[in-house]
Predict the 3D structure of the following.
Amino acid sequence: MEYISTRGAGGERTTAGRAILQGISEDGGLFVPEHIPRFCEEELSVERDYCALAAWVLGKFITDFTPEQIEKCVRSAYTGGRFENDLPAVISKVGDSSYLLELWHGPTCAFKDLALQLLPRLMALSAETYGKGEETVVLVATSGDTGKAALEGFADAPGTRVIVFYPRDGVSEMQKLQMRAQSGSNVSVCAVEGNFDDAQTGVKRIFTDGALRMSLESRGMRFSSANSINWGRLAPQIVYYAGAYCDLVRDEEIALGETVNVVVPTGNFGNILAAYYAKRMGLPIGKLICASNRNNVLSDFIHNGVYDLRRDFYPSLSPSMDILISSNLERLLFEISGRDASCVGGLMESLASTGRYRIDGGMLARLQEDFAAGFCDDEATKASIRAAFEEYGYLLDTHTAVAWNVYERYRRETGDDRRTIVVSTASPYKFAGSVCRSLDIDFPQGLFAPLDALSRATGTPVPNPLEKLRSAKPRFDDVCGRDHLGGYVREQLGLQRRES
Ligand SMILES: *Cc1c(COP(=O)(O)O)cnc(C)c1O
């Protein structure tokens, strides 16, 4: 299987391993597989544990390594107690036709762990295979959860440096502490004076800065990305959709071949895009329902085909979805344009120069065939947390609550009552203050007070990884302006030249 760029009209090709090492294509596009592999229904009834399933799915996309090599990466990522009971993805039935797919039983209590425990291992394997002994410098822009998950995944990984940028005022106090207290001799964490888009744009600029890349190369280093622009982040996310489907078949909740809907709380469009690939591979998925918070650029786009950034940015109770530039949408544009790289290039160009683009009627029709969308504000998010707890005794975090809200409205409005998987992306304890306020649970001052109050009021335990933070000391207090990410990277890598 070879990989091409979404903007690569020139027909350049590379392998999965090289694409993972490089992160983003040199033409600024994203790597995508040359075709989407398929499986047939019968293959879904084979009993496999999560690791075997992951090795099977990934083996279709990553063909430069042996099945044994891939399986070894997968087993070391998903076993050994990194995930509670060694179960990375857990299905919980709520109501009579919906299932929460809990992806937050890993080391950072959010779904990013599923990809970011595996990515460093795939990257190491790729570096072994293709690298010339270079050090890999992994740059991460985070809206809160990716940063910590990348730090956990890459900390003390041989031959790797990790530099994480987060929006100074755009992440929760718990997320901030998780990152600032990260251990490891190869990690740096820096706050950016700006929002997530500023951090992401700054990091993308570094990737396309030829001078910086060359000065890195001359010192035996190379950049890569742990953001979901990296194919190695996306591929592992396809696995849990197949896994959830197989679990529902096994538990006789659905018949083999029955279509299910999938609802995903969305920010950078990585998670829901993985579900789209799963569908294209042959997984019986009906609608992919994209749920946004008040930053509803994606749900507008899915409704009218216009992607328009020129709007206010609202910090919300679901900070990991406070994103206006959803990078992975570019991969979907590539598919719905019939894999037309020059069309994608033109749309991206228009986005960069005018802040908007419009897709044509054919593309919009293809988009709406697969996708539905909705959004809700903070008040509705809180109401959904309250309602799910009162009705089902189920505790939603603020991100999953957005999905739940959009799902209930979708079902009411369309009458589409197919069985539905709602992706649960974070532990409610990661956003305990907001969850407590939604449930009218009082708590005193202090970072851990809402966790304790939530635990007491609901009889559920504080997850271990958060419990352990009680004694953590912040190590990092770096801050940089939004135009100075490159300077910070130079400094951290010892490349800084004094500019006169
Ligand atoms: C990252 C994140 C999201 C958004 O996922 P995308 O793949 O960026 O769309 C949603 N919820 C939580 C808790 C997250 O950490």
